[in-house]
Each structure stands twice: as structure tokens, then as C-alpha cells.
User: Fold these one by one.
Assistant:
Number 1:
Amino acid sequence: MTQARSPRIAIYPGSFDPLTNGHVDIIERGARIFDSIVVAVLANADKKPLFSEGERVQIIRDVFKDHPNVQVDTFDGLLVEYAQRKNASVIVRGLRAISDFEYEFQMALMNRHLAPGLETVFMMPAEQYTYISSRLIKEVFMLNGEIDGLVPKTVEERLHAKRAKKG
Ligand code: PNS
């Protein structure tokens, strides 16, 4: 008799300030591979975000409302402890370019040191998203640059509202 395996839960952690189409691509890929993927928004980070924690969560919930195996949550403290509380066995991270590698490699090995049973899985987004980052999106948009197709529509609308407010 075959034993039912426990569901494979992955955590996709990040700042998501804001969600980009590169993130969306990684979440969709993760949702196809794992039984469920928890998009975990880092709360209480030192850096001052453009979008509040609540806004970032709401955006991701809106975009993935039709994906029942994508959950959205916030976390603070050590990622590995959060992952253990969620019964996750995998941390998903996106790798866009070689320049991401060193930081990601250090984090993956530190997390393995802290929690040897937790595996980091790197996924590559589609080529058209390899140059996108939340930081560049914010910078280009606030300087009136075109970001069409690089972020979900809801992010674009919210960015417009923030720029209008800023004047
Ligand atoms: O999208 P980001 O900002 O590159 O995500 C970085 C994140 C949130 C994955 C990382 O800063 C993190 O895991 N922070 C939680 C605190 C922690 O566990 N730090 C040790 C990491 S080895």
C-alpha cells in the first residue's frame, strides 16, 4: 500500500515593493511545481518601503485571486523559523542574472546552516523579465518613464496614484 505523502509547501519570500511581472512569473512557475506556495512579504524591514505591508499583500492577493494554491502572508524574524512554522520544505528564489548569484548563494547556504532540512530552489523567470527589479520600476516610474508590461495593472494604477499624490 502506498503511503500518502505530505503536501509539498514552498515559501517565496521577498520585499515585493512592489510586485513585478518577474515575481508573478516565478510564483506561477512555483504554483505549477509545488502543492502550495506561500508568498511571504517581509514585514518591518529597515528600509522604508514605497508600498505599505498591507498594500503589498493586497496587490499579491488581487493578482493571484484565481490561484487557490497561492497564499499570501507576512513574516518577520528569521525566514527559516517562519518556514518551519508553515511546515514548508522549500524556499523559492528567483535568479535573474549572474549578479544575483553571490547574494543568493550566501543566503541559501546560511539558511541551510540554520535549517539543514529546508531546501532552496532557484527558478529563472522568462527572459523578458530578467532585467526587471522593484527598485528600477520605482525609480523609472517616479521619473515619468514607461513601465507598461513590466508590472501587473493594479501595481501600475497604484503607482499612478502615488505619483499624483506626490505631485
Ligand atoms: O526581495 P528581497 O528583499 O531580496 O528578499 C530578501 C529576504 C526577505 C528573502 C531576506 O532578506 C530574508 O530572508 N529576510 C528575513 C531575515 C532572515 O532570515 N535573514 C537571514 C537570511 S540568510
Note: The longest helix spans residues 98-114.
Number 2:
Amino acid sequence: MQTGLSRALGIEYPIIQGGMAWVAEYHLAAAVSEAGGLGLIGAANAPADWVREQIREAKKMTDKPFGVNIMLMSPHADEVARAVMEEGVKVVTTGAGNPEKYMEQWKAAGIKVIPVVASVALAKRMERSGADAVVAEGCESGGHIGESTTMTLVPQVADAVQIPVIAAGGIADGRGIAAAFMLGAKGVQMGTCFVVTDESQVHDNYKERILRAKDIDTRVTGRSTGHPIRTLRNEMTRRYMELEEQGASFEELEYLTLGALRNAVVAGDVKNGSVMAGQIAGMVRERMSCRDLIQKLVREADALMKGAGSDE
Ligand code: TUI
């Protein structure tokens, strides 16, 4: 499964673990990198000191490359952008914004920069600014999403840029990986299927909620506020959408989601918390180690891409 992308990143397989807020901490990131993929630490809204500590802990667990995802809406984005350079991080991915103002300094520090984009326009702009690759993330993903699906976004981005495209959104097995390659991707990023791995530190209730999710169990809150977020449906999404329909204010709606992700991930409140997960949650059925998951993904994708597993 080696591609130009995996060689450029110094990893065995072109499989990237999403930089999920509160979920993507160093145990998970190090386990994914040790298993031959690219693990990411999700900086989310955390201050730079937390991110530094996470990077140092990950380095104790693996000599292989790992990355940091910087959520650009974070009030700490500037200081985290500096910290990743000072800590010698090899790969930075960004989400929920335009990282242009940091690109030059990151490139000068020798960091491979991979912005997550949800449109062709931003992908082209990132290529012009010197991005090494882009993640084209479809709205099947969990968390903060754009408008287009993976099926439509990936080939359009692949046609528009020369740099490698990594597909994200709705991928959780070898079929999804093979399909992403057929759409022009040179790698994949996956989130939901890594949440339930043995090394993931999220509360057991969160894992169980994903494992018993059905195909139609996700909801998107915040379309009216301009911050659409995909989560598994629960009491929180029901109340949110009810209020949203009644034309509640931005403040009222935000109040419902404040700290809600933390409540789900850390405290295990999957009723009133925000259980971010992608639409593929309905297919995520098994707990296993990151190593077993990545080996299974590679085996499945390899078989399909060699023609085995077809109907012939
Ligand atoms: O960033 C994500 N997914 C996330 S971030 C997150 S943390 C959070 N928690 C609570 C509220 C808000 C965020 C949870 N999930 N994915 C990457 C992604 N980026 N998806 C979509 C985008 C995106 C959207 C618009 C990137 C750029 C953009 O426009 C930028 C511009 O200026 O054109």
C-alpha cells in the first residue's frame, strides 16, 4: 500500500488517524504510528503547554513519525502553532479554518503541512501556499463538517491540485480505502474506527455508543449557526434541534454544547454530551488494537485493489 505520500511522511501505510478533539491524545497517536500509520494529537481548544506535554509523552512511546492537528478556531491556535515548531513535530494538519498565516514558518521549520479542506477553492489555495498534501474531508465525518460528501469532494479536489489528496469521511474498512483510491486519493484519514480501539482513552460509554450505532443514528446540529457538527443522536441533539427549529439564539444553542464533548469523552455522559462520530459508526462493530485494525484495513484494501474480492 506504499504511495508517494506514505514515503514522504516516512510511514508504512498511507493511513492517518484523525486529530479528534479530546479523543486524539498521545496514547492513541503513538499506537497508530507504532502500527505503521500516522497518529495525530488533536490540539483542539487546548493551551500550548498541554500540547507540548502530549508531544513529549508520544515521543517516549514511539520513534516513528506522528503529527499534531491544530484546530484553527481555538483561542490558543497561535501559541500551539509555535509550540509544534519548537517541539520538532514532523507533520501538522489543520482543521476548521485557513492556516495560510502559519504556512511559511512551518515550511521553514521543515514541517510537512497537510490542511484539512472541505472545498476545491481552499484546496487550491493551500497548494499555492505550499501545502505538502490536503485532506479532503466529506460531510460523512464526525465533528465540524463542510457541505460536500466524500464521493463528490475527493475526485474534484484530486482534479484541482497536483499535491497528494487524502480522503476522509465515511471510511472504516478496506472497501472504503479502495474506493478512496479509485476517487484519486493517495491516502485516507479515519476517525470513528480509531475511537473504539483498545488504546483509545475515551470513556467506555462513548465506545459502546459507537459500537451499537445504526446507519441512520447521526445528526447535524448547528447548521443554523454556521457551525455544523455531526454527532450520534441523543437527548442533547434532540433538545438542540428542537431549540434550533424554534429559532433559539446562538448563545442559547452554544450553551447546550459547551463542554459537551468533554462530558461525553471523559465523564461518559452519552445522553447529554456531544458524541461526535461519523456516519460510518453503524459499521464499526468490533473493538481491537490499533495494530490489528490497521493490519485488517491493509489486508482488505490490498485484496480489493488486486482484484480479489470482486464478484468474478
Ligand atoms: O475540524 C474538523 N472537525 C472538527 S474540529 C472540532 S472541535 C470543535 N468543537 C466544538 C465546536 C467546533 C469545533 C470537531 N470536529 N474537520 C476539519 C474540517 N475543516 N472540516 C471542515 C473544515 C473547514 C471548513 C471551512 C475548513 C476550512 C473552512 O473554511 C476556511 C476558509 O477560511 O475558507
Note: The chain has 14 helices and eleven strands.
